[in-house]
Amino acid sequence: MTNRRPGPYFGQYGRRRPVTGGLEARSQRGSFGRTWWGREFVDIIEFVADKGRMSRGRSYARSGQVISLEIAGGTVTGEVQGSQLQPFVATVSIDRLDDSEVAELVALVRRQPGSLAMLAGGGVPEALGPLLLPAGASALNYDCTCPDDGWPCKHAAAVAYLTTERIDENPLEILTLRGVDLDMLIEGVGGDSSEAEVDDWFGDESSLPGLPDADFRAAIDDLDPLLLRKAIRSVSEDERAVDAAIRELKALYQHFR
């Protein structure tokens, strides 16, 4: 573990204390990560981590040992009940994007058709992965108030696995984790006047082109004359009435011209 905060020394490890109402993981067997973002995040946190501690972390996540979980810019913080009376506080940290990286993210969204609409709808395009996902396990940092100096300890691993499920549920959490505000991102993308005129969103001041001139052709001329006469004949007394009805229809179409 790194950046350890000073805390009490626990001389003896015991069995974990059961928790009522903990944040039990949906995934109860197999691998974590149902979506592309979740799977990518899991691959990164598992790449160089201690396999035994990660296995115990999955067990903690699935048994509801994590009491609380909060994702904020650069840090995920969770309270995890272990063997002691008080829960441990574990964190998973990743650097927030700096101004130049945010500008690069804005430029990438502009270049990807449909990306802005997808973000506004609650999704995150996979094309943004290289900028939003941590660049390997070395970009992650773990900390915990427990005495285990593993990287990560099982408590931090449990927090990381539940973070994966949060990202599965809401991919926009990856933006939150990297310190990117969605509204500011959308504003930054839409603020490029070279892409769109933002002062007149609804086109109230726009000039529309004139309608093309089209040759007049009465709809009656496009009808099958035999079918037309047959239809009119069904409500007419004789052929003279049929002829009169057709002349009236033609006069009406001329009037509406």
From TrEMBL:
TM spans (from-to): none
One example GO MF annotation: zinc ion binding
Domain SWIM-type positions: 129-164
Statement: the UniProt record of this protein carries the keyword Ribonucleoprotein: no
InterPro entries: Znf_SWIM (IPR007527)
Domain of life of the source: Bacteria
Claim: Manganese is one of the keywords in the record: no
Protein name: SWIM-type domain-containing protein
Originating organism: Rhodococcus wratislaviensis
